Amino acid sequence: MSFKSTLVLGTLLFASLAAKADNVILMIGDGMGPNHLKCAGIDKPLYIPTLPVKGWVITKSADSEITDSAASATAYSCGYKTNNKYLGKLPDGKNCLTIAEEAERKGFAVGIYSTDYSTGATPSAFYAHTQSRYDSKTIKSDKEKAGKKMDIAVPVKHISDEVKPRLKKLSHMPDKKGFFALFEGAKIDTKSHKNDLEGMKKELYDFDYAVMKAVNFAYSHPDTTVIVLADHETGGLTDSCSYTRKGHTGQNIQVHAYGQHANLFKGVQDNTDINKKIRTILFGSSKK
Ligand SMILES: [Zn+2]
């Protein structure tokens, strides 16, 4: 083989490596602390705890030991701690670029799906920018703008029904480098606020089924990493399965991961680190 053809072959090889897709599927069980998994797992074995990589996430926000879903989802979406109630904003009020916005700009397909109500905090932190999670006017208008570039479906009824068709859609969009998908099971939190243990378990079983479907996708698409976590714990659920409060707690939550880059999520990490690790997987660097 001549030097020239070796060079051409090398360039082609490099180009095909550079064009190789990396996909990230982030799955958030809102309010799902370690005892939610434990208690739901007593009646019926869960899929989530069988994932090969396990770690822990510190959840506190910029202004509180106990985060809300807005600040926690912003830590995941932007990689910075912010104040409770803030969506896609830093504590000083400046907008932060979210992983969904950055992925879309860099040529990835982006999908955001949740059982939350239409302006719910967790999905909104990926495409809206406001200092109040209750500012539904700004959230609606930011959602509409983002919906032109991302596949957004909030609310959906059962998150498990969405996984297969949405991942098929995202992975077949033409000329994309890969995709970033968020699936949220929002009602694990809602039921826990009401201390409704049986209701919480039903929501968690649906979320668990969604995780199984995402891992099935990753099994046949080995360039995919699935990350399963919560934003915070809700209800102070004990290991004997009784709720001790109606609100959130500051407990660490668990992360489970599967796929090519799952090992990144081992050990104890801050919630802002989750963003940096996802950005390393998708963009090759955690720097913005
Ligand atoms: Zn909550």
Q: Any overview of this molecule?
A:
The protein has one domain (20-283): Alkaline Phosphatase, subunit A, CATH 3.40.720.10. The protein is 40% helix and 17% strand. The protein contains ten helices and ten strands. The strands form two sheets. It has an eight-stranded mixed β-sheet with strand order 4-3-5-1-6-9-2-10, with helices on both faces. Helix 2 (34-43) packs across helix 9 and helix 3 runs parallel beside helix 10. The longest helix is centred in the last third of the chain and has 24 residues, at 197-220. The model is unreliable at 13-19 (pLDDT under 50). It binds zinc ion.
Secondary structure blueprint with pairings:
Elements (H helix, E strand, L loop, with lengths): L2 H16 L4 E7 L4 H10 L9 E6 L10 H10 L20 H7 L3 E6 L6 H4 L11 H11 L4 E3 L5 H13 L7 E7 L1 H7 L3 H24 L3 E6 L3 E2 L13 E2 L3 E7 L7 E4 H13 L5
Parallel strand pairs: 1-5, 1-6, 2-10, 3-4, 3-5
Antiparallel strand pairs: 2-9, 6-9, 7-8
Helix pairs in contact: 2-9, 3-10, 7-9, 8-9
